[in-house]
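User: Run a structure prediction on this.
Assistant: Running it now.
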Amino acid sequence: MSGTQSEVMSLCAIGSGKDLNPLTEQLSTLRRQVEELTKLDAELSAKLKEHEAIDAQALMQELHHRENYCQGLAVRCDKLRNDLQELRKLELALQAKLAPFWNVLALLDPRQRRYRRELETHKKRYREQEQALVRLDCDWQRARLELEQVRSRWESYQNFDVGAHKQRLVEVREQLDEKKAQLNHLERRWRRVQVRLAGVLEEISHCRQELGQVLENLRIAQCWEDRLLRASTPREKAQIHEECFKQLGNPRPRIVMRELELRRGVLERDLQKLHQRAAEIARRASRSIEKIVLDGNNLCFEGNCFIGLAALKAVVPVLAKDYELYLVFDASIRARLKTGDSKIRGEFERYAEVHVVPSRCVADETILELAGEEESTYILSNDRYADFPDKPAVRQGRIITHQIVAGKVFIPDLDISVAYR
């Protein structure tokens, strides 16, 4: 495979939403955990249902019946073995009474003939009894196996701790409910990242396609250049120039290559920037935000124009649908609104915990303290809090900005746009 072909293939392998969405791996892990817990729930439920379906009395009776049956077969086997031993003794006794086979006169003796008939009869009975013992022993072995199976079922039934099993089932279902809730929440966050990435992913796709075409044209131009170097006659070179023009729009492959190399550099830089932009979008969109501390005073201005609580009244109910809110005001808000704390609190107490700092105090430290060290708590403010670089929220970049313009409140990181007038 040529270097250019390898480059095209590597470009085709990047830029997918799965690669750029940082929540995809976490989502796959959580889905697998939900599947495993669901399977475990089904297994535990099936075992409990199977246990409750067992008729203990009938099972115990079956166990006693099979024990007695096995014991009876064992007694019969022992009796047959004893009978065979007796037949063997009789056979040996009869053989002792027989004259040697070379004694011709013994063949005419009536007693010898009787002994021989009795011996044949005993041998026949011995073979029959031996075969009967083999059959009976097979029955006994099969009965023992069936007895062990029933005994195992009975022991499992007795050892089954219904209370512990039900408790385990409750624990698994609690874990499953918790994981499902986490999964639903994570899926919403994952989809939000995908939506935010959609535009830049489309740009990446177009850029990759164009870059792939540029690389392919570079390969073709190089082929024409190589053919020109090998051409031995002016006529052959003219033919190559003509074919190059038909395919690439320019008869001179070296010029085409120079232009394509320039375009390649531009596209590669664009692609790198797009990936960096996509990574930043994904990072911001994938943040886990549970609580938001709003800088109240900061949201009371459109540019330098004081707009009162209008923007907050529009955006706070929207934020409250997805986040736990804390709304903090500077002490100066009382004078600006010409009202007291209770009225300000009454406007928002359905949606947020409201706090107005004491007189001669600013809200910055209160806001930063409320944000604390929890990674899921963010501040909504255009203040950079440069005077507090040591605070965790500042150090970790847990600050979300907003824009209030043309009668609307925009919070890009949260995909919120709401009109306030």
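The longest strand covers residues 324-329.
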